[in-house]
Amino acid sequence: MALFAARDRSVHSRRRRDWQPAFSPQAIRHYEEKVLLHIEELDQQLELKAKSGAVDWYESVDWCQEQIQARLAKGPAPELRDLTYYIMEKEKENNVDAGPWLRGIVCSPSWREALAAVLHELVLHPEHIDKLHAELGDTCLTDTNALAELPHLNAVIQEAMRLHPFLPTGGIRKTTDTGVTIWDVHIPPHTTARIASNRAPPSSQTGGPPRPEMVRNAAAHAPFSLGKYNCIGQHLAMRMMRYTLARVIKKYRFYHPPGVDGSEMEGEKADRFTSFAGPVPLVFELR
Question: What family does the entry list (predicted)?
Answer without folding.
Answer: Belongs to the cytochrome P450 family.
